[in-house]
Design brief:
536 residues; two-stranded antiparallel sheet; 13 helices; Slu7_dom
Length: 536
């Protein structure tokens, strides 16, 4: 709401004001009008439509949102190029000494330097240029097209059109010249028929006809002052307008899909129609036939060559890519022919031999064959078993069956002799009887041994001595000898601690008595004993 001033309103007035705003937004009430008579959009927020208090606006308006401060010095005009204002007949004091114009000096003169200046000759006085000085705004200073006249670009268009017309005219003359020479050569030839001459004359007449009256395919239609501005050129499509559009060939909804964005219809719109009567078979038909397939193979070859490290790019250097592809095809055909010749030299060529009889080629014979309802042969032809690439019915070592034809106790063997050892010599039925007799004899021996075998005796544990010898049960130690052995063990230990008391020419005896062994066992240190440090 674009209110003029913020005055105090009662609750009832405020409610009415809100209802009025809602009615204006719903279109039930007319929109608010500003001081210039223009309607104010009721959907504009209040913080935008309400004017500041210091403007003292009495009527609703949106003038405070517009640029109301404008500098009158700014202009959008441009210099008048090449305009002249006055041309004097005599030299004036202070004018250019070279050309005689008052608007510049001799140092800034753009005319050709004269041998004798206009100051001394009073001849050919140049007119004064129109000098303008005006201040541009921010956009005018940065407008790169300021002062440009778009109508001058028609000169460039006319120049290019003149060149194109001259080129077409030259090509037409060359075409007519070639056709006339061909007609003259055929007229001089007695073998030429009258029908061919009429066709050639017709070709010459067609060539003389203006291109715009023929198919009018390459005509450029210009549209000047379009909505986007400027002039545009649109080239006509090569399809004749009398032809039926592809999306109108079959109006069935479930027929081939037509994409209006790309103008493509990949499938055939009329798959059941006669191919001779159809002129459009779908875009896929054109992609998979003719030169499109060759171009596809060329692209694939360039991609594979680039992946293998060859400097080859279809878009950057198409001529190079095509040349390399042709050389690749030649090398591939040459290699294929060499491989074919090598195989034929090694194995021969069956096609060059005598011709095969017609009965074998066509697979026909006069033999009668009968079949049952399941398709099995009943009479007239032997059942042929399919054979593999491996050798069949080849038995080694006098066997009559193959390995794997017998199975017993999780072992494979030969069925003829029931042997489970591969590449063994076949013994036939005698070997089977001998194996059975040996098995029975072995079972009988095992049973007899189990019956006569006694229960095993318990093995008594022997007490091992410290030196690994057996200690008899009736061993008795002498107490006096054991005490002497203990004293002797203490004395030897003291001598080991103090090497100064060690005597020369010490003699050791390897005969150890049971008392000495018992004394050593009693006096030895147990390293795992926690009280070993407290032992005397």
């Amino acid at each position: 709401m674009a209110t003029a001033s913020v005055a105090f309103k009662s609750r009832e007035d405020h409610r009415k004001q809100i209802e009025l705003e809602e009615a204006r937004k719903a279109g039930l009430a007319p929109a608010e009008v500003d001081e210039d008579g223009k309607e104010i959009n009721p959907h504009i927020p209040q913080y935008m439509s309400s004017a500041p208090w210091y403007l003292n606006s009495e009527k609703p308006s949106l003038k405070h949102q517009r640029k109301w401060k404008s500098d009158p010095n700014y202009t959008k005009s441009w210099y008048d190029r090449g305009a002249k204002i006055f041309q004097a007949e005599k030299y004036r004091k202070g004018a250019c000494q070279n050309c005689g114009a008052m608007t510049h000096t001799a140092k800034a003169c753009m005319d050709r330097p004269r041998k004798v200046g206009a100051k001394y000759t009073d001849k050919n006085i140049a007119p004064d240029e129109k000098i303008e000085s005006f201040e541009l705004d921010y956009d005018g200073k940065r407008d790169r097209w300021n002062g440009y006249d778009p109508s001058t670009y028609h000169r460039v268009i006319d120049l290019y059109e003149a060149k194109e017309d001259a080129r077409k005219k030259y090509l037409k003359e060359q075409q007519l010249k070639k056709l006339e020479e061909k007609n003259n050569n055929e007229k001089g030839d007695d073998a030429a028929s009258d029908g061919d001459e009429e066709e050639d004359d017709l070709r010459v007449d067609e060539a003389k006809v203006d291109e715009s009256r023929q198919m009018d395919f390459a005509k450029v239609e210009k549209r000047v002052r379009t909505t986007g501005g400027g002039s545009t050129g649109t080239v006509r499509n090569l399809r004749i307008r009398e032809d039926t559009a592809k999306y109108l060939l079959n109006l069935d909804v479930n027929s081939a899909h037509y994409d209006p964005k790309t103008r493509s219809m990949r499938e055939d719109p009329l798959p059941d129609a006669d191919p001779n009567d159809k002129f459009y078979l779908g875009d896929n038909q054109y992609r998979n036939s003719g030169q499109a397939l060759e171009f596809k193979q060329l692209n694939i070859h360039s991609w594979e060559a680039f992946d293998k490290g060859q400097d080859m790019h279809m878009q950057a250097a198409p001529s190079q890519a095509e040349l390399l592809y042709k050389s690749f095809q030649v090398a591939k055909d040459k290699l294929k022919s060499q491989t074919k010749d090598t195989i034929m030299d090694k194995y021969g060529n069956a096609a060059t031999k005598d011709e095969i009889p017609m009965e074998l080629l066509l697979g026909q014979s006069e033999r009668q064959v009968e079949y049952d309802r399941a398709g099995r042969i009943i009479k007239g032809q032997e059942v042929i078993l399919p054979k593999s690439k491996y050798e069949e019915d080849v038995h080694a070592n006098n066997h009559t069956s193959v390995w794997g034809s017998y199975w017993k106790d999780h072992q494979w063997g030969y069925k003829c002799c029931q042997q489970t050892i591969r590449n063994s010599y076949c013994t036939g039925s005698a070997g089977i009887e001998a194996a059975e007799a040996a098995l029975d004899l072995m079972k009988a021996n095992i049973a007899r041994k189990e019956a006569t075998e006694e229960s095993p005796k318990k093995v008594e544990e022997k007490r091992m001595a410290s030196w690994g010898t057996d200690i008899p049960e009736d061993l008795e130690l002498n107490e006096e000898a054991l005490a002497n052995a203990l004293k002797k063990e203490d004395l030897s230990r003291r001598e080991e601690k103090d090497e100064r008391k060690r005597k020369y020419n010490v003699k050791y005896n390897n005969d150890v008595t049971p008392e000495e062994m018992e004394a050593y066992r009693m006096k030895r240190v147990h390293h795992e004993d926690p009280m070993k440090d407290f032992l005397g």
